[in-house]
Design a protein that fits this description.
6-stranded antiparallel sheet; alpha+beta; 269 residues; binds flavin mononucleotide; two-stranded antiparallel sheet; elongated
Length: 269
């Protein structure tokens, strides 16, 4: 005899079968779309790099515009480039989690709240990679609610800031979330990292109540803690603990001298 539609057994069988069908559909979609998701993440990363470099407008062909950008992997301990990794695929976040490829940070050394720092990271060079117009540096550190990740674009002199962008953060919209407000970001163009050519520690900082001078930027209003987080992450990544050694090459003109030497050699040949 057929079971009534109200029987417990029939209800449970239908509910179970529905769960199985739905989970198969969701898993198939997740696996099938993984490659597309990764491609979109990669496109988003490139768009952010182009944006901070001032090379992105709505409608820009990202892959075509990204041909002006050369990724290079840098050894943060020496400031030298390395060919040990493929710069197009090297994953510095993964490296930061691997004790063999990173170091522990604690106490006063960890002002950005990272706990671990990768030994190698990827930088992006705009224009001639031997004498770049801009150097795009990945930066990250704790805000009020979580990790903020972004890029800082620095001109080829290793000191003048072109722009900043945060592509991932958990700060409150309207408060700390103003880190991605274009009006606030527009203040950064032309600011300087170091107050003098001899400075080893970066001077750039967010200040409350009106920035004055080339190394100060207005703090975010009503968001002192996020502002402190931005100052801390920049002071960490631009110090000798971060990109300090690498930037010193540009500040002292080593990169430009190398290019000039190469062109003199070519002329002499
Ligand atoms: C719901 C809520 C969300 C907040 N989000 C942020 C935030 O994202 N960033 C931040 O610095 N402060 C945030 N604050 C405010 C901080 O608690 C603190 O009051 C503020 O950072 C002080 O900034 P001020 O000295 O500029 O007023 C939030 C407060 C509340 C109640």
């Amino acid at each position: 005899m057929a079971q009534s539609n109200n029987s417990i057994k029939k209800i449970l069988t239908v509910a179970f079968a529905l769960c199985i069908v739905c989970s198969v559909i969701v898993s198939t979609a997740a696996v099938g779309l993984r490659a597309k998701q990764e491609l979109n993440q990669e496109l988003d990363r490139k768009s952010n790099i182009l944006d901070v470099a001032g090379l992105y407008e709505p409608g820009t062909d990202v892959e075509e515009a990204f041909e002006q950008v050369t990724p290079r992997v840098v050894d943060l301990r020496t400031g030298e480039y390395t060919d040990q990794f493929d710069a197009a695929t090297y994953d510095s976040f993964q490296a930061a989690r691997d004790p063999a490829q990173s170091r522990t940070l604690s106490g006063e050394k960890d002002i950005a709240g990272l706990s671990r720092q990768e030994n190698f990271t990827t930088v992006y060079l705009v224009g001639n990679p031997d004498d770049p117009e801009q150097i795009i540096l990945p930066v990250r550190g704790q805000g009020l609610w979580g990790l903020m990740r972004g890029y800082l674009a620095v001109q080829g002199d290793g000191n003048t800031i072109q722009g900043i962008t945060f592509y991932s953060h958990s700060e409150t919209p309207g408060l700390g979330g103003e880190v991605d407000n274009p009006r606030w970001k527009s203040q950064w163009d032309g600011k300087e990292i170091f107050a003098s050519a001899d400075s080893v520690q970066p001077d750039i900082a967010l200040v409350k109540g009106g920035a004055s001078g080339e190394t100060e930027v207005d703090a975010l209003s009503g968001a002192s803690l996020t502002s402190k987080g931005v100052t801390n992450l920049l002071q960490f990544w631009l110090s000798p603990e971060g990109f300090g050694e690498y930037l010193a090459r540009f500040r002292s003109g080593i990169e430009r001298e190398t290019v000039q030497d190469a062109s003199t050699d070519t002329e002499g040949a």
